[in-house]
C-alpha cells in the first residue's frame, strides 16, 4: 500500500517554487594577516618597518610615500599610487639584493626624491652608475626631475628577532 | 669577519679618545653599541652560518666627526633634503623602543628618513634668504599708508587662487576662478541707477557692507574669466544708467523700501482726519494743510520706520504716540 503510494508520488512531477542554496563568496582579504611578520624561533631579524603591523601607521610608523594626492579636494591620488608601485618594483630590480629596507618616496612639487637604504655590497663606481642610470631613466619616463638619495648600512638594521 | 672586529676596536678607541679631544676640537663621534644582546645574537648567527652573505667593505668615517662646532650649517643643508645621519651631528633616536630598550639610533633609521625635516630652515639660513631676496623687492608706495587710501585709489579688488600640489602636472581646474569685489559707493551711480543695479545683481550685493561680488568660472582660463568679470561690471554700470520704457510700470510690489506717499496708509489717515473734521463742523481743511500738519508728519515717520526697519520697542512706542496724537486720544487713567 505504502509502496504503491510512493511509486505514484514519484510519477507526479514536483512543482515547487524555485528555491536554490548557493555559497556566497568574496575574494579572500586576509586583513588580519596583512604586512605582519609572524613570530618564529627568534633567529630571524626583522627591521622596524617589518616588525610593526599596519595598524601602527600614524602611531609608531610614518608613511613611506609623501604626496598631496590624498588630501581633500586634491587630484591625482591614483596616478601617484601607480607611480609608487612602479618605482618600488623598478628599484627592487635595479639594486638586486641590496635594499636593506623599503624605499621612501618624497614628492616636492614636480621633484621626485627616492630615499634608499642600501647594504654595502657593491663597489662605489658601480653604485654611482646605477644611481645615474636610475635618475636619467626615471626622469625621462616620468618627465619630472628625479633625485636619488642613498644611505648605506653595513647590514640590515635589526629591530627585533622573531 | 676580521675586518668587522677591527672596525669595532677602532670604534671603541675613537670613543675612548673622545673625552680627551672634546675640549680642543669638539667633534662629535658616534660609537656603535656592540655590547648589546641583539648584536651578540647577530654575531652568533653569522658564525653559525659559516660565512657572511655580504662582502664587508671598508667604509669612511662619517662626516660628523670632522665638523667644527661653529661651522656654516646652511652649507650642510642648503635646501630641503632627506635626513642624512652621517651629516647631522646630533645623537637623535627615533622609533618605538623594544621592551627594556631604547629607541633605535639614527643610522639606518627609516622613520627619520620618512618625515620632512627643517634642517635647511635655521634662523641664520632664513636671514640669508631674506637678504638675497631684498634685492628683488621694492618699497611699498608711501602715498598708500592707510586702507582708505588704498580703497580710494584702487576700488576694484580681484581675487585669484593658485594651487600647488605634488605631482607631475601643474594644472588645477580650480585655479581659473576669479572674484571681483567693488563697493557701490565708489561707482558713479544716481538713485535710480543704484536701485536698478542692485535689482540686476540680486544675491551678489551685500547691503551691510555695500560690496558687489562677482565670481566668474565659466571660462577655461583665468585671463578669460577676469576679462569676463570686467565686462560684466561695465555692462551692469551702463545698463543701470539707462531707463527702459517698461520701468515706468514699476508698482508698489517692486519697491525696495516703503514709500508713504500715495500709499493706502496715507489715504486712510487723510480720509479719517477729513471725516473727523467734517463731523466737528469746523472750517473745511484741505489735504495739503493736513499733510503739512505736525501730527500727520509724525504718523508718516513712525509708519515708515515700522515698515522699513521692522518692529522694535522704540518703533512700536513711537507709532503708538503718533496715533494717539493723530486721533487726539487722551491717555486712559
**What is the string of SSEs of chain B from the N terminus onward?**
HHHHHEEHEEHHHHH
Q: How does the overall form of chain B come out from the CA principal axes? A: elongated
The portion of residues assigned to helices of chain A is: 25-40%
Largest sheet geometry of chain B = 4 strands, antiparallel
Which short descriptors sum up this protein?
heterodimer; A: 162 residues; alpha/beta; four-stranded mixed β-sheet; two-stranded antiparallel ribbon; 4 helices; B: 333 residues; mainly alpha; four-stranded antiparallel β-sheet; 11 helices; 4 strands; elongated; disordered N terminus
Please summarize what this structure is.
The complex is a heterodimer of chains A (162) and B (333). Chain A has 162 residues and is of the alpha/beta class.
Structure, described:
The complex is a heterodimer of chains A (162) and B (333). With 162 residues, chain A is α/β, with parallel strands linked by helices. Chain A is 31% helix and 17% strand. Chain A is built from 4 helices and 6 strands, in the order αβαβαββαββ. Chain A has helices spanning 2-11, 48-51, 77-94, 124-142, and strands at 45-46, 65-66, 104-108, 111-119, 146-153, 160-161. Chain A has a 4-stranded mixed β-sheet, covered by helices on one side. The longest helix of chain A has 19 residues, at 124-142. By secondary structure, chain B is mostly helical. Chain B is 42% helix and 5% strand. Chain B is built from 11 helices and 4 strands. Chain B has helices at residues 2-22, 37-49, 110-114, 123-134, 147-153, 191-201, 222-241, 264-279, 287-292, 294-309, 313-326; strands at residues 157-160, 178-183, 205-206, 211-216. In chain B, strands 1-2-4-3 form a 4-stranded antiparallel β-sheet. In chain B, a hairpin with a 4-residue loop joins β3 (205-206) and β4 (211-216). Classes of the chains: A alpha/beta (162), B mainly alpha (333). The interface between A and B is large, with 51 and 38 residues.
Amino acid at each position: 500500500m505504502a509502496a504503491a503510494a510512493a511509486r505514484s508520488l514519484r510519477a507526479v512531477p514536483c512543482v515547487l517554487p524555485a528555491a536554490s542554496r548557493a555559497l556566497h563568496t568574496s575574494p579572500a582579504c586576509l586583513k588580519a594577516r596583512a604586512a605582519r611578520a609572524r613570530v618564529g624561533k627568534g633567529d630571524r631579524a626583522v627591521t622596524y618597518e617589518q616588525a610593526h603591523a599596519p595598524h601602527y601607521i600614524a602611531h609608531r610608523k610614518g608613511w613611506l610615500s609623501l604626496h598631496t594626492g590624498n588630501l581633500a579636494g586634491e587630484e591625482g591620488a591614483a596616478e601617484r599610487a601607480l607611480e609608487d608601485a612602479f618605482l618600488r618594483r623598478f628599484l627592487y630590480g635595479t639594486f638586486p639584493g641590496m635594499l636593506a629596507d623599503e624605499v621612501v618616496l618624497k614628492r616636492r612639487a614636480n621633484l621626485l626624491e627616492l630615499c634608499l637604504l642600501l647594504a654595502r655590497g657593491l663597489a662605489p663606481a658601480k653604485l654611482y652608475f646605477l644611481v645615474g642610470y636610475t635618475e636619467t631613466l626615471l626622469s625621462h619616463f616620468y618627465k619630472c626631475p628625479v633625485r636619488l638619495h642613498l644611505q648605506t648600512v653595513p647590514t640590515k638594521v635589526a629591530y627585533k628577532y622573531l | 669577519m676580521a675586518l668587522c672586529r677591527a672596525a669595532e676596536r677602532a670604534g671603541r678607541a675613537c670613543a675612548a679618545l673622545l673625552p680627551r679631544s672634546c675640549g680642543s676640537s669638539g667633534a662629535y663621534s658616534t660609537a656603535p653599541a656592540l655590547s648589546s644582546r641583539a648584536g651578540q645574537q647577530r654575531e652568533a648567527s653569522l658564525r653559525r652560518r659559516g660565512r657572511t652573505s655580504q662582502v664587508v667593505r671598508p667604509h669612511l668615517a662619517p662626516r660628523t666627526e670632522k665638523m667644527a662646532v661653529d661651522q656654516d650649517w646652511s652649507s650642510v643643508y642648503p635646501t630641503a633634503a632627506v635626513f642624512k645621519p652621517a651629516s647631522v651631528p646630533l645623537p637623535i633616536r627615533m622609533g618605538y623602543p623594544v621592551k627594556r630598550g631604547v629607541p633605535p639610533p639614527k643610522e639606518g633609521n627609516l622613520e627619520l628618513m620618512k618625515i620632512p625635516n627643517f634642517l635647511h630652515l635655521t634662523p641664520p639660513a632664513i636671514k640669508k634668504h631674506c637678504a638675497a631676496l631684498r634685492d628683488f623687492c621694492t618699497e611699498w608706495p608711501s602715498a598708500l599708508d592707510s586702507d582708505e587710501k588704498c580703497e580710494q585709489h584702487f576700488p576694484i579688488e580681484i581675487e585669484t587662487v593658485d594651487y600647488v600640489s605634488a605631482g607631475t602636472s601643474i594644472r588645477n581646474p580650480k585655479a581659473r576662478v576669479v572674484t571681483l569685489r567693488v563697493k557701490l559707493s565708489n561707482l558713479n551711480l544716481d538713485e535710480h541707477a543704484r536701485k536698478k543695479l542692485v535689482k540686476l545683481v540680486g544675491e551678489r550685493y551685500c547691503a551691510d557692507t555695500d560690496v558687489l561680488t562677482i565670481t566668474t568660472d565659466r571660462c577655461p582660463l583665468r585671463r578669460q574669466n577676469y576679462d569676463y568679470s570686467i565686462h560684466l561690471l561695465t555692462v551692469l554700470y551702463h545698463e543701470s544708467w539707462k531707463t527702459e520704457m517698461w520701468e515706468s510700470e514699476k508698482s508698489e510690489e517692486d519697491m525696495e523700501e516703503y514709500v508713504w506717499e500715495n500709499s493706502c496708509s496715507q489715504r486712510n489717515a487723510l480720509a479719517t482726519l477729513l471725516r473727523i473734521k467734517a463731523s466737528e463742523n469746523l472750517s473745511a481743511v484741505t489735504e495739503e494743510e493736513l499733510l503739512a500738519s505736525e501730527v500727520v508728519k509724525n504718523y508718516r515717520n513712525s509708519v515708515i520706520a515700522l515698515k522699513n526697519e521692522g518692529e522694535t520697542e522704540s518703533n512700536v512706542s513711537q507709532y503708538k504716540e503718533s496715533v494717539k496724537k493723530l486721533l487726539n486720544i487722551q491717555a486712559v487713567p
